[in-house]
Amino acid sequence: VSQQLKEEIRRGFAGLEDPLAGLLDMLESSSDWKGKGHSLGYYITTELQLWIKEHPAVQQSGIKLEKLQARVLRILAQCPANLLDPLISIYQLHTADRNYLLGHVSHLYHKGDYKEAAILSIKLKLQPDQDVEKMCTPLLLQDKTNLVEDYVGEYPELQSKLLQILDTWCEPGFNIRDITSQYQGLSRYKPEKFNRKMLSKLVFRLLDRFNVDPALCPNVINQRHLRTLNYLFYKRFVEKTMTQENWTDHVQSTVGENRWLQGHLIQLLISYCDLNTAARWAQRCNLPKEMLPYGVADELQKLQIQERVEDASKADNYEESKKKDYYQLPIPRANIHFLQTWEETLQCWEKVLQPGQVVGIDMEWRPSFGMVGKPRVSLLQMALKDEVFLLDLPRLLEQAEAEGEKEKLPHFIQMLYSDVAITKLGYGMSGDLSSLAATWSALKDMNKQAQSVVDLLTVDKQKVDVLSPEQRYEDREFRQPEKGLSLLVQHVLGKPLDKTEQLSNWEKRPLREEQILYAASDAYCLLEIYEKLCKDPASFGLSSDLTGSLVGKPSIKPRAKKQLNKQEVPSPSGQQCKGSKKETSCPPAPISPKEFSVVCDNMLQGLGRYLRCLGVDVRMLENDDDHRRAAEIARQEGRVILTSGLPYQTLQSQVAEGRCFSVNCSEKAKEQALQVLKHFNVQVSLADIFSRCQ
Questions:
Q1: Helix spans in 363-452 (H)
Q2: DSSP characters over 117-140
Q3: Looking at the predicted structure, is the pLDDT value of residue 564 above 80?
C-alpha cells in the first residue's frame, strides 16, 4: 500500500471522534470487501489496528465496548477470513462475555452457517465449551476435514473425543444414514465422500497427526487388521507367494490376543483350508469351545497335544527343488555376518569404506499393511565380493541411543553414500533412501548427497533384451510371473530370486534362516548382475558405455564415473581429477605459490613441508588436532584444505565448493605435491623454491 494512502487513512482516524465506531460504519455500508484478496476495507482495518497501539486512549470499555462488539460480531459472520484477526483484536472480543459469544456462534450454527461458526469458535477459542460431535458432524458431511482437524488441533481431550465418536460410526452394525438423515437440507453436502472408508482414513490421519493411542479406536483398528488378514490369506492361498512360516508370523502378529479377530481367522481357515487346520489354530489361540463352529470343536477333540511334524523327506525334496528353480548364493553361509553390536559393525565399515569398493545394498522393513506411520528399516544388507553383512538396525539404534551416540551409525551410512570412490549398487534406490530418511531424520537429504550410485532399476527401464520367462520356464505355469528385481535376476543370471520371504516380519528376532539367506541373496545378486552387464552390455540390448549410462544419483539423471585407480583422487567437486597425464577440461587460471595458501590435515605433514619448500603458504594441523579444525582455519584465513580418506567427506561439506582437495595417501610427498599443484594450476619458478625458508 502506498505511503500516501496510509497517511490519508491515519488522518481520517485522527479526525473522527470515535474511530472504532467509524470503522464499523464504513464496513457495514461497504461492499468492496466481499470479494477475494486485500480490499480497501482490509487496509483501513489493519492500519487502525496499528494506529490504536500508538493512541491507546481511543480504546473503549464498558457498555460502549459491548455495543461495538455486538455490531462487529454481525460483520464477522460475513467478512473475509483475513479481517477476522484484526477485528477480534481491535474490538477486544477475547474479553467479551463468553456466554454471549457462545450464543452468537450457536445462532450462526442454527442458521446453517456451520463453517463460519467453526472458524469463529477457533479464533475465539470457544471449543472447550462446545459439543465436539455437534460442531464437527456437518463439517464432515461437507467434506471439510481440514477444518475439523483445526477445530480440535490444540485440545487433546477433544481430539480423543472426536476419534472415539468417529470410531463408533465405524462399528460393524452402525448405520451411517442415522447421522446423515439429521442434516437433510444441508448445503454442499457430499454423501459420496461420507462413508466408512473415508472415516477410517480420517481416523488414521488424526491418530498419526495428534499421536493419540490407537487403542481409542478399536473398531477402525480391527477393521484394518481384518483387511490385513484377508490380504494374507490371498497371498498364501491364491497367489501362493508366501511361505508357511512367514505367513504364520504375520497372522499371529495381526490377530494377537483379539478374540474378535481370532473368530474371523477361524472362519477364514474353514473357507481356505480345512477343519483340522482351523482346529490347530484354535488350539494355538487357546479359544474357548463355545466360540468355535461345531465342526472345529469336534476336530479339536481328536487332535493330539503335540503338533505333527511334516514329513522330513517331503521337506528335503522341497529344498532340493528350490535349489534347482531359484538363484542360489555363491558364497558359503559362514560368510554371511549378522551384526547386532557397534563393535561388530566396525569390521564391516573397515571393508566397505575402501576406495574402489563395489557394494550391493538392499534394505528390509516389516510390511505395514496400511497401518499408521512410515515403516522403519529393520535390516540393512551390504554385499561385497566374498561376504555379506546384515546390520540389525533396530538393535544398533537402541544401543547407540543408550550410549548417547545415535548419530554414529547415520554418519557412517552418509559417508558410504556420499563417497565418490565407492560404487553403490541398488534396485529402486530412491525408495530405499526415503525409508532410511524415515528411520533417521539425520539422513533426510541422502537422495541429494548420494554419489556414484548405480540403480539397476534403470536397466529395467532401458528394456533389457532377453528371452521371455515363458521360453525359459515352460514347466512353471502354476507360479506367479516374476517381476521387479527377481525378473532382472532371471533375465541376466538365468534363475529368478525366491521372493517367498519378501513380506516377512523383519522386526521379529531371531530372524529365521530362510530370512537371512533371502536378505543376503537380495544384496549379493546385484554384484553378479552388475559384473555380467559390464562384461557384455550389448548382448542385453544396453549401450556399450554401461557405466556412463547408469552411474549417478538415485532417481536423478545419471552422470559418468570411472573407478578410482592409484592415480585418481576425488576432487572438491566430487568428480574425478587425475594425477596422470590427462588434463581437466577447464583448468583454473595459473597462480604463483605466493598466492596459494593451504591447511594440511595431520596425516599430510610430509606434503605440507614439501609445498612449503616450493614457496606455498602452508599451515599444518598438529597430531592431536581434530580434523574439523582444518575447516575452521580454512574459513577464517581463506585457505584450501588438503586432506585424505574419510575426513574428506566431512570437511568438503563445511567449506565452499572447490576449497577441499583429497590427496592419495599411498603416494610419496613429491607425487602428492605435483598432484596438488597440477589441480590448482600453481606455476612454480626457481625464485619460489626455498623462498619461505629462514
A1: 393-402, 408-418, 429-439, 446-449
A2: HHHHHHHHT-GGGS-HHHHHHHHH
A3: no
Q: How far apart are CA 518 and CA 173, in angstroms?
A: 44
Q: Among 264, 192, 188, 166, which Cα is nearest to 222's? A: 264
Query: In angstroms, rounded to a whole number, what is the distance separating the alpha carbons of residues 681 and 351?
Result: 35
Q: Which of 46-60, 566-580, 625-639, 664-678 has the lowest mean pLDDT?
A: 566-580
Return all residues near 679 (Cβ < 8 A) that are at least 6 apart.
571, 577, 584, 661
Start-to-end C-alpha separation, the chain: 68
Q: What are phi and psi of 359, to 5 degrees?
A: -125, 130
The burial class, CB within 10 Å (0-12 / 13-18 / 19+), for 666 is exposed
Asked whether the whole model's pTM tops 0.85, one would answer no
Name the pairing type of β-strands 568-570 and 576-578.
antiparallel
Q: Are 281 and 260 in contact (CB under 8 A)?
A: no
- Do the beta carbons of residue 424 and residue 450 sit within 8 Å? yes
Instruction: Please state at what angle helix 259-272 crosses helix 244-255, rounded to 10 degrees.
Output: 150
**What is the per-residue pLDDT for 568?**
35
**How far is Cα 34 from Cα 79, in angstroms, rounded to an integer?**
6
Correct CATH for 593-680 of 3.90.550, 3.30.420, 3.40.50, 2.40.50: 3.40.50
| CATH 3.30.420.10 given to domain 336-463+483-549 | yes
Residues 431, 45: Cα–Cα separation, whole Å:
50
Distance CA 177, CA 198 (A): 15
Q: Which amino acid is at 658?
A: G
The pLDDT value given to residue 31: 63
Q: Which residue has the higher pLDDT, 297 or 37?
A: 297
Q: Give the separation between CA 526 and CA 650, rounded to whole angstroms.
A: 28
Break the chain into its structural domains and give their ranges. 3-172, 220-303, 336-463+483-549, 593-680
Q: Quote the CA–CA distance of 508 and 526 in Å, as a whole number.
A: 26
